[in-house]
Amino acid sequence: VLARIGKASLGAHQIAFQLYNLLALVLDALAIAGQVLVGRMLGAGDGDGAYAAARRLTTLSLGGGFATGLVLLAVSGPLPHVFTSDPQVINRLHAIWPLFAAMQPAAAVVFALDGVLIGAGDTRYLAGAMVLAALAFYVPLALAALHFHWGIVGVWAGLLALIVVRLATNLWRFGKRRWIVLGAA
């Protein structure tokens, strides 16, 4: 879609998306801890401990996501210039930067809850929720961005919608506690 929108938008997307991937790896560190802690606690029969650990990890992730988003907003002027000197690419980066920054807190919680649910062995649910979010929200919004000439902002609004839907589905699953399946008595 972005290749059809234009070279500057495609370049801006590549810069922002690579930064997103880098930040995802940093924010995902708590998700890895969640996988281990939740899996160990559920295997040991400690459902309450697994839930408490998951809540702490999610809260820490939310704080990290807010901090990351604020840092991104603070460096929105100079950071794009580190990656390119093309004024059109920088202009397109500035157009999506608020969406990129706003995505961070929600993405951090999504990553943490992914880790919790993976640790609980609830991967089938995660796969279904991701397919739902992608096919029902992201793909239609990305195609609408092309059709209605929303440009890179429309595509990134679709990415933000993907994260928000994943947040909603993960929070719903977490709140229902169906993922708490004890291993040992």
The major β-sheet equals:
none
For the termini, the CA-CA separation is 52 Å
Helix percent reads: over 70%
The poorly predicted ranges are none
Strand content: under 5%
SSE ordering: HHHHHHHH
Overall 3D form: elongated
Structural class: mainly alpha
Mean pLDDT: 94
Rounded Rg: 18 Å
Account of the 3D structure:
The protein is mainly alpha-helical and 185 residues long. It has eight helices and no strands. α2 runs parallel beside α6, α3 runs antiparallel to α4 and α3 runs parallel beside α6. The longest helix has 33 residues. It is elongated and about 55 Å long. The mean pLDDT is 94.
List the helices and strands and how they pair.
Blueprint: H1 2-5, H2 7-27, H3 29-43, H4 47-74, H5 79-83, H6 87-119, H7 123-147, H8 151-176
Helix pairs in contact: 2-6, 3-4, 3-6, 4-6, 6-8, 7-8
